[in-house]
Design a protein that fits this description.
Keywords: DNA-binding, Phosphoprotein, Transcription, Transcription regulation, Two-component regulatory system. By secondary structure, the protein is α+β, with helices and mostly antiparallel strands. It is built from 4 helices and 8 strands. Strand 3 and strand 4 form a beta hairpin.
């Protein structure tokens, strides 16, 4: 499964014209983070985003869960930022590795599993959903 989305200018994910793949991905649960009412932008500020009980501050590069700041390594933060960029999207291990470690990544994609496991311990196991046979998505 080829995922041709990449981190473009300004830190936004874009997609080039690529081949379409017929892949059946299970639907998100009804309690998805995008289904919840977001706090008003004025309450959070321009660089803060609330996804369920998680608050990302991309200006300060901090993460809070239930009002408590969680200290993440730079790699854990990059993985989390990728997963929360499009919470509905399922990211393959290969896509996460490519985005976090770069084009020259030649390591074992299972290292992504280790970082997902560490993230789950720090922000809560229910925040990241495993989509069996496909990868991971933010479940907030």
């Amino acid at each position: 499964m080829a995922d041709d989305a990449y981190l473009g200018a300004g830190g936004k994910f874009t997609s080039s014209a690529g081949t379409a793949t017929d892949v059946s991905i299970p639907p998100r649960p009804e309690s998805s983070p995008t289904a919840e009412a977001a706090a008003p932008a004025s309450e959070l500020g321009p660089f803060r985003t609330r996804l369920g009980s998680l608050v990302l501050d991309t200006g300060r590069l901090t993460v809070e869960v239930d009002g408590e700041e969680v200290h993440l390594t730079p790699t854990e933060l990059r993985v989390l930022l990728l997963l929360t960029e499009q919470p509905e999207h399922v990211y393959s291990r290969e896509k996460i590795a490519f985005t976090v470690w770069g084009y020259e990544w030649a390591g074992d994609s299972r290292v992504v599993d280790v970082h997902i496991q560490r993230l789950r311990k720090k922000i809560g196991a229910n925040m990241i959903e495993t989509v069996r046979g496909f990868g991971y998505r933010f479940a907030g």
